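2024-03-11 09:14:02 DEBUG pipeline.ingest accepted 1 chain
2024-03-11 09:14:02 DEBUG pipeline.ingest length=99
2024-03-11 09:14:03 DEBUG pipeline.predict start
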Amino acid sequence: MFDILIGMMTDSFVAINAESTQSCGKILLKDDEVDAIYHSCFSKLENHVATNPQDTHCAFKLILVIRKMERIGDHCSNIIEEIVFYVEAKVLKHGGSLA
């Protein structure tokens, strides 16, 4: 998850500096991947706590961390949406398409 997010941030910065929408679709797909990892981690931690209640405190802290990481992906997607609007005058928010 961390490596994907680093890639998303790097690609977002490149897109901003180049004022290019070429890699924007790839970044938005990576956000979907990050969301899937987040939901998978959440489910795994939930199952772990059900069988190991002594680990609840640690699991709660991990949930907070992965939630913050997932939000980083959302912020990168928001940046991409703004870049696409700035460069191509297309609105991607609320289900818009890059195509």
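2024-03-11 09:14:41 DEBUG pipeline.report The chain has three helices and no strands.
2024-03-11 09:14:41 DEBUG pipeline.predict end
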